[in-house]
Specification:
4 helices, 75% helix
Length: 56
């Protein structure tokens, strides 16, 4: 993958993780949920507050 394509992909993933939980991103783009969670941490948004606030 060319460097510019990789940078664009990484930027798009960071933007998506700002809007959606990692598990949703994992399902959408076909990556392991753990990978999506690590990317979310890297992006500074773990979604832990969102998950804790969800009604059970």
């Amino acid at each position: 993958m060319r460097a510019s394509a990789r940078a664009a992909r990484n930027t798009a993933m960071m933007e998506a993780l700002a809007d959606l939980p990692p598990i949703v991103i994992a399902d959408l783009i076909g990556i392991h949920p753990g990978t999506a969670t690590r990317w979310a941490r890297f992006a500074g948004d773990s979604w832990a507050d969102y998950l804790a606030a969800r009604p059970t």
